[in-house]
From TrEMBL:
<dbReference type="Pfam" id="PF01614">
    <property type="entry name" value="IclR_C"/>
</dbReference>
<dbReference type="InterPro" id="IPR029016">
    <property type="entry name" value="GAF-like_dom_sf"/>
</dbReference>
<keyword id="KW-0238">DNA-binding</keyword>
<feature type="domain" description="HTH iclR-type">
    <location>
        <begin position="14"/>
        <end position="77"/>
    </location>
</feature>
<dbReference type="InterPro" id="IPR036390">
    <property type="entry name" value="WH_DNA-bd_sf"/>
</dbReference>
<feature type="domain" description="IclR-ED">
    <location>
        <begin position="78"/>
        <end position="262"/>
    </location>
</feature>
<dbReference type="InterPro" id="IPR014757">
    <property type="entry name" value="Tscrpt_reg_IclR_C"/>
</dbReference>
<dbReference type="Pfam" id="PF09339">
    <property type="entry name" value="HTH_IclR"/>
</dbReference>
<dbReference type="InterPro" id="IPR005471">
    <property type="entry name" value="Tscrpt_reg_IclR_N"/>
</dbReference>
<dbReference type="InterPro" id="IPR050707">
    <property type="entry name" value="HTH_MetabolicPath_Reg"/>
</dbReference>
<keyword id="KW-0805">Transcription regulation</keyword>
<dbReference type="InterPro" id="IPR036388">
    <property type="entry name" value="WH-like_DNA-bd_sf"/>
</dbReference>
<protein>
    <submittedName>
        <fullName>IclR family transcriptional regulator</fullName>
    </submittedName>
</protein>
<keyword id="KW-0804">Transcription</keyword>
Length: 270
């Protein structure tokens, strides 16, 4: 077998893996309702027969589950098992949960933990606050490009300039999908403000009237890998309250960062 043939087979295999990963991510965006086949086809850009064949193969391996009553696809039990095993390595949820509870209790707003995955953020956890009116833009499993929503802004603000340039060089995709408030120029202006105060403010840019604030959490290498955020309606995020909310977010983000750096056995309160 020639080197060219080996390379060709490698590329073909990588393409299949990439398609499978994309389908799993698409299904994961609808953790409760599930994803219907037409939605998956539209989001993936693949043909209907190809999507169905891959979905059926994933279901046969337990990686997806098909609900015949609603004709929707859901993440399968094998992924749950894998996730439980992987949680021992990425156990930030246990560390972050008390911080989310404190944020929700002290502010009355819904508190969230998001993780950076490539050029996106994925919401991992949610703790509801006591205020009865809520924003539903953010929920477990939802993904946004970096620079969109407060968590993605908070993470993007502390990445190296070259990486920020690469991420924002998207040929206008963010602006087309999320509006003029997500142009590279607008995002860069927001990043400069975030670097000054330490936290991000999203003034209803994803959904009018739905505001959010976020603060980055750093891994042991000092890189922004997660973000805490608060979301709610506009009247709850007036300028006179933002400073207090930002301070609470930064306190909890720093607390988690310290624990990740020092380890639970060497946790410090200072």
């Amino acid at each position: 077998m020639t080197q060219k043939t080996v390379q060709h087979k490698t590329v073909q295999g990588a393409q299949v893996v990439g398609r499978i990963a994309d389908l799993l991510r698409i299904v994961a965006r609808a953790p409760e309702a599930g994803a219907a086949l037409p939605e998956i086809v539209a989001a993936s850009g693949l043909t209907r027969p190809t999507v169905y064949r891959l979905l059926a193969s994933l279901a046969a391996e337990g990686l997806l589950d098909h609900d015949g009553a609603t004709n929707t696809w859901h993440l399968g039990p094998e992924l749950y098992v894998m996730g439980a095993v992987a949680a021992n390595r990425y156990a930030i949820e246990d560390i972050a949960r008390p911080s989310l509870r404190r944020l929700a209790d002290e502010t009355g707003e819904s508190a969230f933990l998001s993780i950076r995955r490539g050029d996106e953020t994925v919401c991992l956890m949610r703790v509801e606050g006591s205020f009865p009116v809520r924003s539903f833009v953010l929920h477990e499993g939802v993904r946004f490009p970096l620079g969109v929503a407060s968590a993605g802004l908070a993470i993007l603000a502390f990445l190296p300039d070259a990486e920020v340039d690469r991420i924002l060089n998207d040929d206008g995709a963010r602006t087309a999908r999320f509006g003029p408030g997500h142009s590279p120029e607008s995002i860069r202006a927001n990043l400069r403000a975030i670097r000054e105060v330490g936290y991000a403010v999203n003034p209803g840019l994803v959904l009018e009237g739905s505001w959010g604030m976020g603060a980055a959490v750093f891994d042991r290498k000092g890189e922004p890998a997660w973000a805490l955020s608060l979301t709610g309606i506009e009247s709850r995020f007036r300028p006179e309250r933002q400073e207090a909310l930002g301070r609470l977010l930064l306190e909890e983000a720093h607390r988690i960062t310290r624990e990740l750096r020092d380890g639970p056995g060497r946790r410090r309160d200072s």
